[in-house]
Design a protein that fits this description.
Keywords: Cell adhesion, Wnt signaling pathway. This is Armadillo segment polarity protein. One of its GO terms (molecular function) is cadherin binding. Residues 271-333 are annotated as: Disordered. Helix content is 53%, strand content 1%. The chain is mainly alpha-helical. The chain has a domain at 88-282: Alpha Horseshoe (Leucine-rich Repeat Variant), CATH 1.25.10. A two-stranded antiparallel sheet has the order 1-2. The protein is globular and about 60 Å long. The two termini are 30 Å apart.
């Protein structure tokens, strides 16, 4: 606890000296996840008034390496329910969404540049040595955990970011698919969220993701579809139930995420068990990638209720180049 208090004080006193704040944030990130007493760390940061100063580091003049570390720390801190309201009050949610939109647009721009024969190649979008896919994955992952709280879900719904979550379901990087399906799973817990998700055309990619080789992706996709079916006709629910059961059966006869028959009605337990400890954004090695050969996603994502549960194809959004952190502005929170 004393060490955490010292780190919070260090960050507060360092101001804009990133050679001090970045290692301090990284140390806090490691102390707040994958650790026997990580919950103590998550609470201590709040009790020492660390949340506002940490959220403030998401804003300029912070450079991308520091921003990436802060995003990961905020995700860890959000694992503690008592931190949801203070993070919201500090403006974390709008700023995370701004960073997500910025990084997503940069990857889209590079995708268009590569498709038209421009420069950039397929190596990814970088700024200050940080891949923009990592920012996409990190921000969506943090929003996923924050969306466990109803007031936070209402704010996320109002920021018009659900269409981006839906497009990320087509991404070729499994970790991005996983966090996108995860945040949609939480947002679908509310009727308003489920309706928006369906209107933005999520049914087709979610149905395809039921067949993902990644347990987390398949399980979250099933949970979103289940929650979206709440107000649907009974025959639709029966066909969906059959589809979920068949799709989630593994070759060994087991079921992703546990036996479907044991899941509660709202499928709240129908989520991967590793959520508290795995932080792929900071894992070693290259990002996991879906098998190649998927046709491209539809240019227009159809919305609305489709009684036939269409299965559409997946295609990753190619990764792209990013301009320097201060070009184009960073927005405020």
């Amino acid at each position: 606890v004393g060490g955490i208090e010292a780190l919070v004080s260090t960050i507060y006193n360092a101001g804009e000296r990133e050679e001090i704040t970045e290692p301090a944030v990284c140390a806090l990130r490691h102390l707040t996840a994958r650790h026997p007493e990580s919950d103590v760390g998550q609470n201590t940061v709040r009790l020492k008034n660390g949340l506002p100063v940490i959220v403030n580091l998401l804003h300029p003049p912070s450079r991308w390496p520091l921003v990436k570390a802060v995003i990961g720390l905020i995700r860890n801190l959000a694992l503690c329910p008592a931190n949801h309201a203070p993070l919201r009050e500090a403006g974390a949610i709008p700023r995370l969404v701004q960073l997500l939109i910025r990084a997503f647009q940069d990857t889209q721009r590079q995708r268009g540049s590569v498709a038209s024969g421009g420069s950039g190649g397929g190596g990814g979008a970088y700024a200050d040595g940080v891949r923009m896919e990592e920012i996409v994955e990190g921000t969506v992952g943090a929003l996923h955990i924050l969306a466990r709280e109803s007031h936070n879900r209402a704010i996320i719904r109002g920021l018009n970011v659900i269409p981006i979550f839906v497009q990320l379901l087509y991404n070729e990087i499994e970790n991005i698919e996983r966090v996108a399906a995860g945040v949609l799973c939480e947002l679908a817990a509310d009727k308003e969220g489920a309706e928006l998700i369906e209107q933005d055309g999520a049914t087709a990619p979610l149905t395809e993701l039921l067949h993902s080789r990644n347990e987390g992706v398949a399980t979250y996709a099933a949970a979103v579809l289940f929650r979206m079916s709440e107000d649907k006709p009974q025959d639709y629910k029966k066909r969906l139930s059959l589809e979920l059961t068949n799709s989630l059966l593994r070759e060994d006869g087991g079921v992703w995420g546990g036996e479907l028959s044991q899941m509660p009605p709202d499928m709240h337990e129908f989520i991967p068990p590793s959520e508290g400890g795995y932080d792929p954004m900071y894992a070693q090695g290259p990002p996991s990638v879906h098998s190649a050969g998927h046709p491209p996603p539809p240019q227009n994502y159809p919305g609305g209720y489709d009684p036939h549960l269409p299965v559409d194809s997946l295609q990753g959004l190619d990764i792209a180049n990013q301009q320097q952190h201060r070009s184009g502005g960073g927005g405020g929170g």
